[in-house]
Amino acid sequence: MSENKSKKLDGKVPSGPVESKWEDHKFNMKLVNPANKRKHTVIVIGTGLAGASAAASMGELGYKVKAFCVHESPRRAHSVAAQGGINAAKNYQNDGDSVHRLFYDTVKGGDFRAREANVHRLAEVSVNIIDQAVAQGVPLAREYGGLLSNRSFGGAQVSRTFYARGQTGQQLLLGAYSAMMRQVDLGTVELYTRREMLDLVMVDGKARGVTIRNLLTGEIESYEADVVVLATGGYSNVFYLSTNAMACAVTAAWKAHKKGAYFANPCYTQIHPTCIPVHGENQSKLTLMSESLRNDGRVWVSNMKGDKRHPAEIPDAERDYFLERIYPSFGNLAPRDVASRQAKYRVDEGHGANGGEEAVFLDFRDSIKRLGEDKIAERYGNLFQMYDKITGENPYKMPMKIYPAPHYTMGGLWVDYNLESTIPGLFVAGEANFSDHGANRLGASALMQGLADGYFVLPYTVGNYIANTNLKKVNSTDSEFKDSENTVKTEINKFMKIKGEKTVESLHKELGRIMWDNCGMARNKKGLTDSIAKIQKLREEFHNNITIPGEANGLNPELEKANRVADFIELGELMCRDALVREESCGGHYREEHQIDGEAKRDDENFCHVAAWEWNGSADKAQTRNTEDLTFENVKLATRSYK
Amino acid sequence: MATAKNNINLKLKVWRQKNNQTGGDFKTYDANNVSPDASFLEMLDAVNETLVKKDEEPISFDHDCREGICGSCGFMINGNAHGPQKGTTVCQLHMRHFKDGETLVLEPWRATAFPILKDLVVDRSSFDRVIKAGGYISVNTGNAIDANATPIAKPYADEAFMSATCIGCGACVASCKNASAALFTSAKITHLSMLPQGQVERHQRAQDMVAQMDLEGFGACTSTGTCSASCPKEISLINIANMNKELLRATLFKKEEVGGGDMT
Questions:
Q1: Which residues are registered as beta bridge partners of A270?
Q2: Do B70 and A148 touch (CB under 8 A)?
Q3: A199: CB partners within 8 A, 6+ apart
Q4: Between the CA of residue A333 and those of A16, A91, A375, A442, B125, what are the distances in Å?
């Protein structure tokens, strides 16, 4: 395959005013007759919010759904860990919220790098998500009058976030999971657990199936379908240390990328400001402290550099409440990219906690004084408990120490308005796609997007694809499937036979360090260029010097890791390339060369577009950077300010 | 925060079993220079890293979020499900709770309904089947009315929430002498029976879920309370009393109705 020329992509946004695009589009889409639906199979990879809701909804419609997850139960998917909440434009608080305001906040919050039409649809269906969840029995927080309660999240001046204490993700996931299990009971959804997708099978240029490793037996299995949906989450684990769960990987998306699905804006990653700081070398992951804590917690550092005093001994006059100082109108609820960057500046200047550690304080002293410990416990009890367990310090008595950590990835597989990738029949939902958050996601919008895609978008657009497409019969015994199985088996055997010196874990850590230092909160040309060379060397070492004990047939966690880390290494290089070419700062992508007083400086003239990278047949070949132009007809392109 | 000065050394006696066809036995490992700030699983990671370097198979254990919410992790430490700290999953258990020189015995959950798959990994799919039998409200996507159209008194909403916090880890079963799943099953039954949305299928749900629980081979509840005591989410024993009440209600009052899952 030769290197392809750069193309312009069409997002297939329907015409008409933004407010009616989705309604009109729903009417214009073709329907599949109920009796015909059961003749069509949809494969859903991943059973988090996006995957479980898609599988449940399409099962309800009558499609034959096969749902796969790497976990032993779909309820373990990483959506479970989302803490703070889910946004919806209900305006139950009568504080001026509306679909348009949620749309506006999300476009602005994403630093004008998202597709307007997608964001508007997201804001529209947000209200249906809350209705659906409550109908399923999701126990969202309520006031004494019995009605739903809201809290505020970063980047918004209204209270539109619905929540279930500090475990909104778990409760919404259990809702989607139970809806899916009901379909399993009814026989419309077939569930395959402990299965990992290792290849996408293409027939006649369309996605027609997947090749899967059964993680228990090691068997390589393939499954055919008319449509494949990837809902496989994000790739923050490329940083090794992140708030993602241990099994979160880019593998399914990356395999699809290698088969022709373009990967959009890989450099857009979110570094979450409030995570528990790193404790040592053996740390395996980082733990988030929900953004909701910034409703009542105040972020500060000492005015004095290298101040080693106990935080309680630092008087107010000697504290710098830096978010309140710099962003008076949003205060502690400045968006994540902005808040993270400011925390990093303070630490870089020497104001870190306890004499300069990589940490700033998140303090509840004033709220406890104002509301009482009981009220704070009611709002954040489980988060405080988690903090106490991890650090051994009591946050009711002493401010939390927090520091930014990789948390979410806005980039992902490129999809059009229908959530279809550049491969016909391959749809991508939730964090795995790139579509709605631009260069920075607002808090409490990930749950919203995952469920919007699964409950309310895919059931329509997948049907439209099936109704409009001539799908010849395929079978998992066809040569395309056998070829794919052989490729996967060969790759696995290669890994098993290396028997080198390095553990997969140690190389993953090395990759993480390169990425965090050079493609994390701040990036520059030299760092990115050097990193690309380092990652290429790391890739070579990986393929020649890793060691995996045990056998390929049977449960082998080291082999699972190797499959995932191999893809993270290739992705890491692409992230650096994407960050290098994007000569501007926007949202979470902060190039030190492009700033005004420490704030991101966009270049709308040259970069008001999505970058969608195309695989050219081998990891040794540079990928082609295709673009999709972004136009802003409803929210005026402006410098994003929270001051 | 990280200092080497307080690091400890431990001995681990770990259950090793190749798969569910073979038997297993205990093997002893050293865990040296363990930071008190490390989590229990991070301590195991370090032991595994040394095994991998020697081309020996690492100790398999289920784990994922490492934040105490996904419910993947869990094994017995010295006979306690998730270890000695109350209200804590093993991933959230930190090494500062152990003393230098201690010997720790690690065993998988043991229950007929949780067959051992490898080392500390067990098959808990029986829990999914209990949920599948009726742990839901039958409402298709798009059928919902406005979320605030049905107010729910806060005490009921809160109680439903408390029951819904179950993470399905299986500690209740593992620590029960009868290997009963009563706490798990009753938490879901209670969660849904507290809510107005859950009323329609209330009777059928209790009957179906309890029947499935029995079918899976879980033992009967004899109210010893170890389940609740070992539950990392501290799910209350009252849930079980409530399940028995729901079951009785269903037996007495259930009309010939057909529950959601059995319509087709």
A1: A408
A2: no
A3: A210, A211, A255, A259, A484, A487, A488
A4: 35, 19, 20, 11, 42
Q: Mind listing the pLDDT tens digit for each residue in A454-465?
A: 999 999 999 999
**Interfacial A residues in 216-245 facing B (CB < 8 Å):** 216, 245
Q: What is the pLDDT of residue B82?
A: 98
3-class state of residue A489 by DSSP: helix
User: Catalytic site residue A325?
Assistant: no
Greatest CA separation for chain B: 69
Angle at B79 between CA B76 and CA B82, to 5 degrees: 35
The pLDDT value recorded for residue A397 is 95
**Short-list A413, A438, A384, CA closest to A587:** A438
**How far apart are alpha carbons A403 and A353 in whole angstroms?**
10
- The token pair that represents A138 in the structure block: 């999701």
Number of H helices and E strands in chain A, helices first, is 19, 23
CA A549 to chain centroid: 32
Interhelix angle A251-258/A557-581, nearest 10 degrees: 60
CA distance A455 to A495: 39
Q: Tell me what ipTM this predicted complex has.
A: 0.96
Q: What is the DSSP letter of A455?
A: I
Please give the average per-residue pLDDT across A571-584, as a whole number.
Answer: 98
The pLDDT of A138-147, averaged and rounded, is 96
Which whole number is the average pLDDT over A574-591? 98
Taking the Cβ of residue A128 and every Cβ of chain B, the question of whether any pair is shorter than 8 Å is answered with: yes
Euclidean distance between the first and final Cα of chain A, in Å?
Answer: 50
pLDDT of residue A1: 43
> A1-10, A63-72, B232-241: lowest mean pLDDT where?
A1-10
Catalytic residue of the set A115, A195, A336, A539: A336
pTM over 0.95: yes
CB nearest to A390's CB, from B58, B92, B123: B92
- Residues of chain B below pLDDT 50: 1-3, 263-264
pLDDT score, position A280: 84
Q: How many Cβ atoms are within 10 Å of A373's Cβ, its own excluded?
A: 14
Q: For residues A413 and A611, what is the distance between their CA atoms, to the nearest angstrom?
A: 11
